[in-house]
Amino acid sequence: MGGNTVRRTARAATPEEPLTGRHQPRPSQLDPYKPHLDKRWAEGHTNAIHLHAELQELGYRGSYQTISDYLRSRRRRRIRVVVPAPPGVRQVTGWMTRHPEHLSDDERRQFTSVLAHCPELTALHGHIRAFTEIVTTRSGQHLKDWITATRAEDLPGLHTFATGLAKDWDAVLQGLSTRWNSGPAEGRVNHIKMIKRQMFGRAKLPLLRKRVLLTAARSSTQSASTYTGECPTEYASTYSGPG
After folding, report:
1. What are the Cα distances from residue 232, in Å, to 157, 184, 240, 242?
2. Distance between CA 83 and CA 70 in Å, rounded?
3. What confidence tens digit (pLDDT) does each residue in 111-161 have?
4. What 3-state class would DSSP assign to 21?
5. Contact (CB, 8 A) for 51 and 67
6. E strand or H helix at 61
7. CA gap 151, 159 in Å, rounded
8. Would the pTM of this model clear 0.70, i.e. be above it?
9. Which helix (H) or strand (E) holds 135?
10. Contact in structure between 48 and 64 (CB atoms under 8 Å)
11. What is the spatial distance between Cα 31 and Cα 33, in angstroms, rounded to a whole number?
12. Which of 28, 131, 151, 200 is the most exposed place for a label (fewest CB within 10 A)?
């Protein structure tokens, strides 16, 4: 504490007397007009430029910056209304591809609002539901009608998808009409990749080859037993049957 501060405090007649300085409020040309500013702010008029023009008509000769500084604290205290963010592309895509019964009430309400504001999305959603029905019911005979309907719409994304289906028409039609698919083959490929990752840095190719072949042979035996009702040989010694 400096000597001047000590002397000023010792000479003060009241405790409030030393409490003067540059951080204390000073008289301002705006003081007579502050009640008017407070009233207008409470009425919802928060534009400092308009308020400055009003005060000038009432005789104020100060600057605009003084009014802006006075209103700054009120702007910080003002409650901001946060508008919910609109759903994103990924969220809307999920709503379109999921079954309507699996959507919550809030998701269904938001999705309905989105479709109401975009006729293109409404048309797209109808085609997606129709294609899903073809896939789940294996009604491939309706695929040609579906492609014709999509090409009649101004939906370039669906046009590209339909063109890709037409390029491999026979395979697509069989996949949408019969119970046979490439799922087992894809599952075997994924299983081989899993074994490869497990063996990475631990063994050479001969051991990896044996693991792949033996795992495939065992899986084939288990699959055959599932269709024939027989117990695999490796479990036969431990299986005693019912009772």
Report:
1. 49, 20, 13, 16
2. 28
3. 999 999 889 999 999 999 999 999 989 998 999 999 999 999 889 989 999
4. coil
5. yes
6. none
7. 6
8. no
9. helix 119-137
10. yes
11. 5
12. 200
